[in-house]
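The instructor's notes for this session suggest beginning with a concrete chain rather than abstract definitions. Hand out the sequence below and ask the class to guess, before any prediction is shown, which regions might be ordered.
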Amino acid sequence: MSSIPRTHTAAATTAAATAKAPSHTHVHHAPGLSPALIGLLATGAGLSVASLYYSQPMLGVLADDIGASERLVGMVPMSTQLGYALGILLLAPLGDRYDRRRIILIKAAILTVALLLAGASSGVGMLLAASLAVGLTATMAQDIVPAAATLAPEHSRGRIVGTVMTGLLLGILLSRVVSGFVAEHFGWRAMFVGAAASIALIGVAAWRGLPRFHPTTHLSYGALLGSLATLFKKHGALRRAALAQGLLSIGFSAFWSTLAVMLHGAPFHLGSAAAGAFGLAGAAGALAAPLAGRISDKKGPELVTRLGVGLATVSFAAMALSPWFSTDGQLALIALAAIGFDLGVQATLVAHQTIVYSIEPGARSRLNAVLFVGMFIGMAGGAALGSLALAQWGWIAVIALATTTSILALVVRLWPGAAKAR
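After discussion, reveal the predicted structure:
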């Protein structure tokens, strides 16, 4: 993105249009957020983003049932991740241009259909197409988070965004637990049907409970996308946040994308439900997201990014000690490390969002889009690199990959001038 050529006329037009946009979003309700509305936003974010991860513990069952090779069925989670990155890039910026409530409702309807199609797939081709559509429309989570930031009072924005992000992160982590259990007891198709029903219910709740949002810009769609590059070039804090979170996401995704395969083999020989249950360890870390938000509100988000990345780095590196443990000891070490690095990754993400949302209030959807495009490029890359590392050199290579990219993220946050970039 940083290599996009500068077109002075287009950049000037974009900057002028952005400057004319209102500096805040008006909603048809009194200031503040009720606990019920925060709960709706957190649940909606969690269930929508969970759609990306239901397939991961079910890949072994899926491959046998639809007659696909391991290589082809391994493209399913990558397809959803790429769809999500594309959706963030191409669709999420629309939240600044149109009523976010309407966008959330439309995406919920299409996501419901896409999940039903995934559950009805008879071959890997249909499943890959449905997975891409799931990824594109699961970006409703990235409409919900800026909505929460817009509705939240400034003095408690970090806490409220942290609470909504807890819902989102629990959706990511618990999705594996749920899908592993459901696939083992009721079949993989039942999981997709249940997921579709949950999104349909969220759509109804959002239709009844969400306020309307007025646009903060009147840029055309082309200018809106062009302004992403303008914002990226203009704000060092945005570039630093996207790069650091993307690097951290490589290790996060490499771990979760290869864990089930690693646990399936010697010496563990664990099934999909047991592999999915490791999501509970990560979920414990995700519960600290509101705490990270509160610390960001009081001490500043820069401190939280450095602590979070540091914790993730130490947690990833600790797993290199596993060969010196018994089988049960290795499982305990992996579970503890998962708690640690999930806490670090999620705390860092909440702090990065707090930094990014404070840059230009009228461009929150686009700023959020840039941050999450960086993050999910890292996620997709981590899934691919992790699978390659596991196949070629084993689990220790996955740990080395995660540790190295986390160290690079720490360098980005500690680089001189990081605080000034805010």
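Then share the key points. The first helix runs from residue 8 to 20. DSSP finds 20 helices and no strands in the chain.
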